[in-house]
Amino acid sequence: MVKRQSVLLSAIFVAVVLVISVVVVRQFLTGPYPGHNDFMSRWEGARSFFVDGLNPYGEQASLNIQKAIYGGPARADQDPGYFAYPIYTAFLVWPLVYMSYDWASAIWMVALAGCLIASLFLLFNLFNWKPSPLVMGFLFIWVLLFYYSARGLILGQPGIVVYFLELLAIWALFKGHDGLAGVALAMSTIKPQMGFLIVPFLLLWAIRFRRRRFLVWFAASIVVLLVASFLLEPSWVGDWLAQLRLYPSYTALGSPVWIVTSYYLGLGGWAEAVINVVLVFVMLATWWTALQGRNERLFWSIVVTVTVTHLIAPRTATPHYIVFLIPIIFYFAVISYRNRKRGSLWVLLAMFCLLIIPWLQFLVTVQKQFEHPSVYLPLPLIIMVLLVFDRHRWWNASQVPVVQ
User: Fold this and answer.
1) Residue 370 backbone dihedrals phi, psi, to 5 degrees
2) Judging by beta carbons within 10 Å of its beta carbon (0-12, 13-18, 19+), is residue 94 exposed, middle or buried?
3) Residue 256, C-beta contacts closer than 8 angstroms, at least 6 positions apart
4) CB–CB of 347/354 below 8 Å?
5) Is 256 exposed, middle or buried (0-12, 13-18, 19+ CB in 10 A)?
6) In angstroms, rounded to a whole number, what is the distance separating the alpha carbons of residues 47 and 94?
7) Helix 133-145 to helix 101-126 angle, to the nearest 10 degrees?
8) Which of 109, 188, 315, 345 is deepest in the core (most CB within 10 A)?
9) What is the pLDDT of residues 255-283, one digit of tens each?
10) Can you tell me the distance from the alpha carbon of 331 to that of 400, in angstroms, rounded to the nearest whole number?
């Protein structure tokens, strides 16, 4: 009885905090300063679909998006703001299309912040880490101000939701909640470029070790999403792929590997292809060890897969780099456990450096409000180097989660 009351009071407290947060965000941010362009494209596309009955990939819906962002049709040198996501992404924002954009974007921004905070609790649990109240308090603030997550919040980037869903699926698999893992992983496919490697790996691992419940719930969830999508808009796959084919025409940068090989070194596509093959080979080698039953290497294989994803994906965005919170929090936990007396101090120092350095790099290199290509390189490259040369820590540290 006491436990139920505690849970009820906690739920009421969280609900009150969320409501107050939405009101404050709307009053001081989304009301006077409308933006969140990444969210606007999805919101207006979904609104055009559910309210106006338009194909979200059609010319009129695209024009509606451009008018909402630019006040008129996009110029040739502007991002056309296409919906450009699987149509079932519209289900995610559907409850918000019947209200004004300032309130919808305020709710969305608070929801994204909630995903970031909730992800910290999942990581604490995965790594069996109980940071001190001081460190935990600063982590809650830090995770919202960290360059990659802050940029995602400012843009209203759905990639934050995808990160949370992928992490939820990983956490649920390691904790034996296979049904939840299957549903979360299926829902994470709203942004395929963030999961085109981790989804098949987790499915392959589940097949190898007969995690039937996970496979059934994943398949059932995908079927529901696809059936609902085809019933609402039968032509959506072709329309979506048509918009994806236009993507390179209005994006200036490719993957981090492309930035190194083509933008900086001018070596062309062959060098990018060679490095991509090497990275994929390294990733597949980690898959092999995990599929041989080396449970202590499974989590390492997952993090390698996520890192390779964001090194070779044809187009990525810095808000997607919030996935690297997974290895960052792992190292925070390791530092805390290895230095019982001064661990919290070292973690706070690391947080400060990780907070300041990316923002300084952005401010020093920014070009007409656009990120310089160099901003895309340090974090994924450093994480990849650590995963390769510090792999024994990932295999043997007590903080490494082992699947149940």
Assistant:
1) -105, 145
2) middle
3) 310, 311, 316, 376, 377, 380, 381
4) no
5) buried
6) 8
7) 140
8) 109
9) 999 999 999 999 988 999 999 999 999 99
10) 10
